[in-house]
Amino acid sequence: MSQALANDPKREDIVRLVDVSKIYRQGKIEVRAVDNLSLEIDTGDFCALCGPSGSGKTTVLNMIGGLDIPTHGQVFLERRDLASLSRGEVAAIRRDRIGFVFQAYNLIPVMTAYENAEFVLKLQGVSAVECHTRVMTILKEVGLVGLEHRRPDEMSGGQQQRVAIARAIVTRPAIVLADEPTANVDSATADSLLDLMQKLNRQDGITFLFSTHDKRVMDRARRIVRMRDGRIESDEVQG
């Protein structure tokens, strides 16, 4: 942890990893994707996990999101140890407290943009009227009004990523985990998406944690955590 963060009396972590390792075994070969890593992410952070491919960035995001289980160590989200919770409780946290933005979008191909954005709200039991209000508000925020009835295969990569962001934020999550969100879009679209995410961070207080090696994301981040070989090389606050 950087000295500036350590000395900030107002810090309140939303994520805390304590001595976390993730080991994959392929026959007799052992791959240590994350190696005894400790990390805290503050509420309201706009933070980038940076490093080359294979450095462990995506694995860290997956463990924070409860999509993967650490081999050793503890992962806390909003002070709750994920390992101490049932599968149902972890699933509820993913549904209600975490927004995911995946590099490959992970949209449901048979659903329209509106239906993809609405999907998690329906899982939460939100009423049809409230769903419509919130989805249309979010689609306007991400610049997709007029495209709500298009399926993913009828949209550009940038438009699909906007749908993915809409789906991630429509539930008003505490944290958004974004895995290489600008990897498959052009520079203008990437800047527009980052503008949107910075606005949501500032206005709504949503915490953003990115996995990236994109300089555009790193230039926007207030904090950069650099990783290599599953470990943290540096942790610095910018600006």
Task: Write structural notes for this entry.
36% of the residues lie in helices and 29% in strands. The chain is globular and about 50 Å long. The strands form two sheets. It has a six-stranded mixed sheet with strand order 6-7-8-3-9-10, sandwiched between helices. A four-stranded antiparallel sheet has the order 2-1-4-5. It contains eight helices and ten strands. It has one domain (3-237): 3-Layer(aba) Sandwich (Rossmann fold). With 239 residues, it is an alpha/beta fold. Residues 1-7 have low confidence and may be disordered.
Question: What are the key terms here?
Answer:
disordered N terminus; alpha/beta; four-stranded antiparallel beta sheet; 10 strands; 8 helices; Rossmann fold; six-stranded mixed beta sheet; 239 residues
Radius of gyration: 18 Å
Count of strand segments: 10
Give unreliable regions as ranges: 1-7
How much helical structure, as a percent, in the residues? 25-40%
Strand content: 25-35%
Shape field: globular
